[in-house]
Design a protein that fits this description.
The complex is a heterodimer of chains A (about 550) and B (about 130).
Chain A lengths: L1 E2 L5 E3 L14 H8 L3 E6 L5 E11 L2 E11 L1 H11 L6 E7 L5 E3 L14 E2 L7 H8 L3 E6 L5 E9 L4 E8 H4 L1 H16 L1 H30 L13 H81 L2 H21 L5 H34 L8 E4 H13 L12 E6 L7 E4 L1 H18 L2 E12 L2 E7 L28 H11 L4 E5 L6 E8 L6 H7 L3
Parallel strand pairs in A: 13-15
Antiparallel strand pairs in A: 1-2, 1-5, 3-4, 4-5, 6-7, 6-11, 7-8, 9-10, 10-11, 12-14, 15-16, 16-18, 17-18
Helix pairs in contact in A: 2-7, 5-6, 6-7, 7-9, 8-9, 9-12, 10-11, 11-12
Chain B lengths: L5 E5 L3 H14 L2 E5 L2 H6 L8 E4 L8 H11 L5 E5 L2 H13 L9 E3 L4 H13 L2
Parallel strand pairs in B: 1-2, 1-3, 3-4, 4-5
Classes of the chains: A alpha+beta (about 550), B alpha/beta (about 130).
């Protein structure tokens, strides 16, 4: 598991450890100080755990502590198994504690509670336990153990664990066969003198030889020959002792392996932490860049908005008094002309002049509107104030506006053009920005009127699918120039000298912003053209909302 | 028209107030106009006007600030904006909405506007509840 500098577990293979705090725990405190510290720890259930712990640093920066916990039950059970062979044999694992004394790691056969409780003072240099740790050599000794009973013991120091191992057996058991031999020798000795001596030599060797062999092997082991197999003949006990020692080699190898594994894992973890840090840095950096780009974009958008607003204001403001006063003057002159029965030629001229001024003022007015709409579309700030409204209402609104001739002075009143509309029978609601759809319809009607000298302009609307409505404006004018037709809805694609060349482009964008489509074609009878646009049908259950949004 | 409807018009542009005052009075309204928003506020007559028309972009005090001050003096008076800055108006509307006040879209008149349309709009606003 990996702990942060505050002792909190931030990563663990065992989820139970996650987020637990260990700032007071020894393995964390020690792990901060030095690498590869092994700490033994006995849990409440007497299970012995080993903590391999060390600091996690990145270019001298302390990042936290890595700790690997593994249970020692498997290791210790090995000893229990080997202890089965003899009544008094046992293995002692010891390590040096903070006082320099030897502390027993494993529970002992005759002292089950010895684990981490039994200590042997460093002054007792004659004990195998101390010898295993301090003499740093492998020995075969006769001694008395913690029970005060004479024992035979072999010791070994395990370098990479810093542990000492003692394998011992009670002298009485070890030499039980020898003791028996003594009596046999005495008995037989009385009967056969020379043969007894001969026999005793032979039998004596059978005991001492294995021990001697064992000692030799021990020497080998000390020189690092862990793989030496012990081949001893002789009594079972000594043989077993040898096997046990052999087992120690295996255990030691396992430990070495374990240690290597831990070291390897730690390196891997450290490496991936470094990589993670690098990635995090890269991420932070790109994040910073994103934030700054975003700020710039916001500023840009703000500047653009302000520009549009200021331009709008500056362009539109001077038009107000021009239009207002021209209209007022026009009205006054018209009234004068009405009153004076025979209007003077001078006044007729004045009326005409004003008409021209007004027509151009309106054109300028339309141009400012269109340019600002295009700017809004292209800077993507065209906002729609949608409301649920009856399509009939919108269309009738526009047509009435056109029929009210006084409002449309820019068109030749001499024209014989009629706008024909038959209202849709079904009630169709559309969720649209009313003013914008009126703008589209006005643009299309303006367009139709512009190119139609006489005849009718038909407007119709119908449901085409369950969720779509189509509006059709059919004129009988000159039709669309074939050169222009493919780019009809692009900016400045006009052959008219009256318009701004922006109306259809704006209309297309408005319709598309509502989720509809717009297109045009020349009529098959070579008379005029037809414009179509579609709109999604609004959900009628929102009728209430419509009521709320209606004018107060 | 039984009583003459009274309009207060505030716009810093003299040409605009001059033109609109003439056009609206020609139609039959009584119009008081100010080019200085602070003077307009100081001389404001409570419960006197049928409609207040404000420009937005003005020096010294913008139309929104004037709107708020006038509302404090005369909470029921109808106030509409006649302005070329529709984006600012949208922001203002949004800000008022967050304060719980619904400023209708209809209280915005786009500048420039034809006199006929302006009068139609003013009539509608005045007859609204």
């Amino acid at each position: 598991m990996i702990l942060d500098p505050d002792g909190k577990v931030v990563a663990s293979t065992n989820n139970a450890y996650l987020d637990t705090i260990h700032i007071e725990d020894k393995f964390f405190i020690e792990g901060k100080k030095q690498n590869n510290v092994t700490i033994l720890f006995k849990q409440k259930n007497q299970e012995l755990k080993s903590y391999l712990t060390g600091p996690l640093t990145l270019s001298d920066k302390f990042l936290g502590v890595v700790t690997i916990i593994y249970g020692l039950e498997d290791l210790l059970s090995l000893f229990n198994e080997v202890e089965d062979f003899a009544a008094t044999a046992e293995i002692i694992l010891a390590k040096i504690d903070i006082n320099g004394d030897a502390v027993v790691i494993n529970p002992l056969r005759f002292f089950p509670d010895a684990s981490l409780n039994l200590t042997v003072s460093k002054n007792q240099t004659h004990t195998p336990t101390i010898q295993s740790l301090f003499k740093n050599e492998n020995r075969f000794t006769e001694s008395k153990d913690y029970r005060g009973i004479p024992v035979l013991a072999v010791t070994r120091y395990i370098d990479n664990l810093d542990w000492g191992v003692v394998v011992k057996i009670d002298k009485s058991e070890a030499f039980a066969s020898l003791e028996n031999l003594k009596y046999i020798t005495i008995l037989i000795g009385i009967l056969v003198g020379v043969s007894i001596i001969f026999a005793s030599i032979v039998l004596g060797n059978s005991i001492s030889n294995p021990i001697q062999k064992l000692r030799n092997i021990m020497k080998d082991v000390t020189k690092g020959k862990f793989d030496s197999k012990i081949d001893v003949g002789g009594t079972n006990e000594i043989e077993e002792l040898a096997k046990q020692l052999d087992m120690m080699s295996t255990i030691s190898n396992t430990n070495t392996h374990l240690n290597e594994l831990v070291r390897e894992r730690t390196e891997k973890i450290e490496k991936s932490i470094v990589e993670l840090k690098e990635k995090e840095e890269a991420l932070k950096e790109s994040n910073r860049q994103l934030v700054s780009v975003n700020e710039k974009l916001n500023l840009q958008s703000r500047i653009q908005k302000d520009f549009i607003n200021i331009t709008a204001h500056e362009l539109r403001t001077p038009i107000v008094p021009i239009i207002t006063l021209c209209e007022l003057l026009y009205k006054k002159i018209m009234n004068e002309n009405k009153i004076s029965m025979n209007q003077s030629k001078e006044n007729t001229k004045k009326e005409e002049f004003l008409k021209v001024i007004l027509r151009n003022a309106y054109r300028l007015y339309q141009l400012t509107q269109d340019i600002l709409d295009v700017t809004k579309i292209e800077s993507q700030i065209l906002r729609l104030n949608k409301e649920l409204i009856q399509l009939n209402e919108i269309i009738e609104n526009v047509i009435n506006d056109y029929k009210d001739n006084t409002n449309r002075k820019r068109y030749d009143s001499n024209k014989e053009v009629r706008i024909v509309y038959e209202p849709i029978k079904d009630t169709i609601f559309v969720n649209v920005d009313k003013a914008r759809i009126i703008q589209v319809l006005s643009n299309l009607l303006d367009n139709a009127l512009k190119f139609t000298k006489e005849g009718n302009i038909f407007i119709s609307a119908k449901k085409i699918k369950e969720e779509q409505v189509i509006v059709i404006i059919k004129d009988s004018g000159t039709g669309i120039d074939l050169e222009i037709l493919p780019r009809l809805f692009e900016k400045f694609a006009t052959k008219s000298e009256e318009g701004t060349g922006l109306g259809l482009y704006i209309s297309k964008n408005i319709v598309e912003a509502h989720g509809g489509k717009i297109w045009a074609e020349n009529n098959s009878d070579d008379r005029g053209s037809t414009f179509y646009f579609t709109l999604p049908i609004g959900k009628s259950h929102k009728t209430k909302e419509y009521g709320e949004n209606s004018r107060r | 028209m039984t009583t003459i409807k009274k309009i207060l018009l505030v716009d810093n542009e003299i040409d605009i107030t001059y033109a609109l005052e003439n056009a609206l009075e020609n139609y039959g309204f009584k119009v008081d106009s100010f080019n200085d928003p602070i003077l307009a506020l100081d001389n404001y007559q409570i419960h006197f006007y049928d409609l207040v028309i404000l420009d937005i972009k003005m020096p010294k005090m913008d139309g929104f600030e004037l709107y708020i001050k006038l509302r404090e003096k005369d909470p029921k008076v109808k106030i509409c904006f006649l302005t070329a800055s529709e984006l600012f108006y949208e922001e203002f509307r949004h800000a008022r909405l967050q304060l719980g006040e619904k400023v209708g879209e209809e209280y915005f008149i786009q500048k420039p506007i034809k006199t006929d349309e302006l009068i139609k709009k003013i009539d509608t606003l005045m007859t609204n509840k």
